[in-house]
Amino acid sequence: MKIDKKIIKELSDYLNEFNLTELEYTVKDTKIKVSKNNSSINNQSPTSNINQNKIFKNNSNEIPKKNGIEITSPIIGTAYHAPEPGAKKFVEVGKKIKKGDTIMIVEAMKTMNHVPSSADGKVKEICVQDGQPVEFGQTLIILE
After folding, report:
1. Structural domains in the chain plus CATH codes
2. What is the model's pLDDT at position 37?
């Protein structure tokens, strides 16, 4: 069986473009499953796993290096930058924050969970968009 690398590359790009953790594609008796942790290809035979060690971002084959203190999501949910639509954002790039300050809200099961900063610092990068789904441990912001 010949593996079409273009399909795998395209599916991997969709994972990043739509911020998915897993994607499955089936044609006749061939099934391709791509996830951020590993990829599986099934053709009614034993599964073969291929580790994905690269993150493709902005058409670059380099793994992005994050310098600074990463504040991560404590739960799975939807991240919000402000307490309500149209309100002032909790943090902006360049703003100094203190340990314990709310940096974002992660909504899970209709419960708004304030995410506190785990350190003092200056906001270097906001890694998620307002209203974006987030995973447990996903980086929300980076402090310098």
Report:
1. 5-51 (no CATH), 69-143 (2.40.50.100)
2. 58
Edge-first strand listing for the sheet containing 133-134: 111-116, 102-108, 77-80, 133-134
Q: Structure pTM?
A: 0.54
Name the E strands within the chain.
Answer: 22-27, 30-35, 38-42, 48-51, 69-72, 77-80, 96-97, 102-108, 111-116, 121-126, 133-134, 139-143
Residue pLDDT, tens place only, 127-144:
999 999 999 989 999 998
Contact 103, 91 (CB under 8 A): yes
Round to whole Å and give the CA distance between 34 and 37.
8
pLDDT tens-digit readout, 88-114: 999 999 999 999 999 999 999 889 999
